[in-house]
Amino acid sequence: MSPCVVVRTLPARCRLPRVAVAALVAAIVASPAGAQLVTPRTVPVMQDEQFEIYPSSRPGLGGISIAIDDTLADPFTNPAKATRLHGLTITTAPYSHGISGSRGGGRTLPVGFLASSGDWAGTFLGAMQQLDRAGPIWNRPTSERTATNQYFSGSLARRLDAGLSIGVSAFHADLAAVDGVDLLYAGSDRIDQSGSLNDFRLGATKEWEPGHVLEVILLRNTTNMRHDVHFTTGFYDQALKAWTSTSRTDVNLDQTNIWGVHTEYTRPVGTEGWHVGALATANHLSHPKIPNYVLQNLPRDPGSTNAFNVGLGAARATGPFTFGVDVIMEPMTSNTYADAATNTTRADGTVIPAGDKTVENHFQFRNSKARIGVGRTWGTDSASHGSFTLNFGLAMYAISYDLTQTNNILRTLRTQHENWVESGPTFGMRYRSHDIELSYAFRANCGNQGCDVLPNGGDPILYAATASTGGIIAAPSSPLFFQGGSETSHHFTISVPVR
């Protein structure tokens, strides 16, 4: 990371203390949807495993997806792909995840069905999750030191003529907690979370021949979370000659709405089993309410984001070896602001009317992703002992952005540049036979020397993922510094075909 901060002062007769706007909204619902949802992040955080509820038939391949199929995960990514299913499959994908330093984690049990009959196909998956609360839990009973979340996902698809398929899907999460939120309100002693996530998709695929496919997805994604944050402040009362305390509860709303369109195109190349593909995505995110975290001293800070991606991929998955690589660019812009609750007088005597902007933040992102995976299979599915596969992968995510912040109260303009790289290895193994499919995947992720943020001259503060798919659009007031940290997960998948 090589931070650069430049402050340019506009004409003004006097100065006020620096005002910083920090606005956070959430992480990706689940990695199979990662290509369809493109979101900003302005501080180094680990990609939370909380929403990784879907099974995968390609465990440990580093997340490559553009030019290679995943028969279990694809129907949850694009509902139209459910028409590729045959018969009925029952699947379960239990997993556990943890963040270093006891900063979160949990255990999740998803159970799902994938079915096809004639021209119709569909999926259903439900998951129960227990999360370990991080942060201030010392004053809570044992029953409140963990939280329970529920997830539901379903889709319906129909195969039409000439290789065309269409499908619709819906996802709902009933959330009592999200990893990391407990750590975002420094000084609080209790945080109660509640809310929901919803995702709706309309998908279509056109297949000319096996492997030669065009797909299109339209999506609507919404988040509505509430944080009831309790603070207790102790002080020594000189009149009473005793220690006393006061308390308050702040209510913070976290709301993000996304409209998106996504398209992918893949086709075979040559006669050696190679496939190439390309993708493109456009998302518009509106942030009507961003929580007022402790670092944020300006409330009422809505904003919007326009996010895009373009990517290329190549893969070979024939014979005993599997190889694939994805490269994705993610340009985007974000604008957030704070407005005046009442008429605000500048130091020069002029007035900012109530409702006008007091601080404006403009972000310009130039992010990129690279993923690579390789696998080796022994045996065949039709053999009496089935087949066994080992997969290895590596994923890297480079984030780079420029912030321009205009303070209309102080009449100042400053710019800041930040960049870092997050990376992690993956490992997977799979046993597959005519009667069952068993797999295990391990994933790890950490940033450049860690995944936490240390504000310049301050105490360590962990910025962690919350429930929205809006990403993180915090406007840092000083260069970012890193601390150590990592996130790991262990995923198991059991799939049984019912004939």
CATH class: Mainly Beta
Mean pLDDT: 81
Profile the largest sheet.
Answer: 18 strands, antiparallel
The tally of structural domains comes to 1
Instruction: Report the count of strand segments.
Output: 22
Radius of gyration over all CA atoms, rounded: 24 Å
Q: Report how far the terminal alpha carbons are from each other.
A: 55 Å
Structural class: mainly beta
Strand-and-helix sequence, N→C?
A: EHEEEEEEEEEEEEEEEEEEEEE
Helical percent range? under 10%
Provide the β-strand percentage band: over 45%
Q: DSSP helix count?
A: 1
The low-pLDDT segments are 1-32, 451-469
The geometry reads as globular
Name the CATH architecture.
Beta Barrel
Determine the CATH topology: Porin
